[in-house]
Amino acid sequence: MRETGLSPEAFCPLSIAVVFVLMFTFVIVGGWLQRRNRSRLALEQARQLGFSLMPRVDPLFAERIRRAYPPSVNARVSNVAYLRQNELTIYVFDVAANRLVASKSQTDSEQGVIALVSPLLNLPPFLLVSRPAALESIGLMTHMVELVLKKLGLAFGYRQVSFAIDSEFDHRYLLFTNNEEAVKAFFSDSLVSLLAATDGYFVRATGDTLLFSSFNLARIKKPAAVGQISAGLDQARQFYGWILDKR
After folding, report:
1. CA distance between the termini of the chain
2. Per-residue pLDDT tens over the stretch 122-149
């Protein structure tokens, strides 16, 4: 009687293929469940903050945020909540920033990013980074943090700007731009003095948009709490108020 079935030689490649398919399916389903849970949490956070959640991301808004990142970074926006207050629109959202590191693709995620958009703003492009916040986040020695931050500025095509009028500001912040004259005119003596008393801002700005985020170069393991987002919103509104006051 002739035996039927697969030979051991044929069974081995088939087993590998089945395992591969199962692993691929697990990754896809796991990613989908993670995104669904994050969307549910974002909706709950939006309600607690008094915001509305966009059913779909506005392509124009997504492009606006993408331009706030270096050209080498592909920033994808999701879970966008918004609140309109007269001529100011405030957004809270997630960003997945994909970039090449040593010829390998790496995606860094950030949740609870805040954007303020208003026609009352006419900002030169700049990147403002808190030295203490960056030092705490990166966890490296001070001189290494300086190198990381300067490379960050170069990634935007910016160079560092210093203010001789207030050494405390330069001690607390690094400021980068590709338009030094416009930025120095924007950062008036009063604004520099106000910022010299703070140490937590990480701001990207251009045109009618201010973008605030925590300084974190690693993947976020858990979402930002509503309390953290509320504190960030208070800081963002304070910064926006300072800008309007100096007009």
Report:
1. 95
2. 999 998 888 766 555 554 445 555 666 6
